[in-house]
Amino acid sequence: MTKFSFDLQATDGRARTGVIHTPRGDIRTPAFMPVGTAATVKAMLPDSVAATGADILLGNTYHLMLRPGAERVARLGGLHRFMNWDKPILTDSGGFQVMSLADLRKLTEEGVRFKSHIDGSTHMLSPERSMEIQRLLGSDIVMCFDECPALPATEAEVAKSMRLSMRWAQRSRDAFGDRPGHALFGIQQGGVTQELRAESAEALKAIGFEGYAVGGLAVGEGQEAMFGVLDYAPDMLPADKPRYLMGVGKPDDIVGAVERGIDMMDCVLPSRSGRTGQGWTARGQVNLKNARHADDPRPLEEGCGCPGCRNYSRAYLHHVVKAQEIIGSMLLTWHNLHYYQVLMAGLRAAIAEQRLAGFVADFHARRAEGDIEPL
Ligand SMILES: [Zn+2]
């Protein structure tokens, strides 16, 4: 049986490329993970997600525990079988979403008691329950249960929250148990304070994890503040383990994070914006609702290999988005996920060939050009 392991294959500056090996398949890094919140990447079949080049997707513990329920998914053979995705799955711990979505939260040392935003039923999430749910789902990469303080927060509040998360990280490690082929990732907290980030990293390294996430970013602090933390935070984590930046991001966020030593990312942006008529291309964001596309026979992105660009015009995409036809969401989600994976493949090749600086310069130059001129 394949063990969970990480082969760091090349570096260019602080950027890294490698492969995470799991029993369910390899994950090429830097990796972008599409988000399959409720056991589906919305508007996509699993085969289509794989066809875009995704090696792994993310599932949300908070959503799945409430509906359809982790015990039910386990009875039905686990999340991979339930949603027909046989590649690796990473699940979050539920900690972030319980703080952002649930009603009537009560936070204690034990965990978080809350009411479901779906039906008002009462639930408890703790490090132990989060580990149990992620095991029932059959997740390949399990995240520690942590707390992300609501912003704005004082440094004292961030410190207190971080130390609680480190105690929960130890409880997560203890509850995870011995599960060959599966990985548990610790999550660094500490907000935008370097000393707190260092304290958190030391606490996590003392416990020991198969991978490490930089948590508590992409929560509204802005790109400059996020990059400010990424200028030092990833280097505090073990170099021989994957580093995951949670909830990022826009294409330029991804490029900047990879430049700073991040190996894995996830974001709802490409799929969500595909359902609101937005296309992401090498030349930036394109709003297909815009009337300028109504008579445009050209593809959304010249040279793109996705079905939306190979088979359809901007005029068609504009029409189906305006008419709120389901195929509009399907084609734009596919295109956006395809574009993200092309970007990741480009980053991996550039790092492997020691030409990341040129790749990044070209990335920014093409975006600065903006969308193609109207006809
Ligand atoms: Zn396309």
Outline the structure in words.
- With 375 residues, the protein is an alpha/beta fold.
- The protein has 2 domains: 5-267, TIM Barrel; 274-368, no CATH class.
- It has 15 helices and 16 strands.
- The chain has helices at residues 46-51, 61-66, 70-75, 79-83, 95-101, 127-137, 155-176, 194-207, 223-230, 251-259, 269-274, 307-311, 314-322, 326-352, 356-369, and strands at residues 5-12, 15-22, 25-29, 31-34, 57-59, 89-91, 103-107, 112-115, 122-125, 141-143, 183-188, 211-214, 243-245, 264-267, 278-281, 284-287.
- The strands form 4 sheets. Strands 4-14-13-12-11-10-6-5 form an 8-stranded parallel sheet. Strands 1-2-3 form a 3-stranded antiparallel sheet.
- α7 links the parallel β10 (141-143) and β11.
- α6 (127-137) crosses α7.
- It is globular, with a radius of gyration of 20 Å.
- Zinc ion (ZN) binds next to α12 and α14.
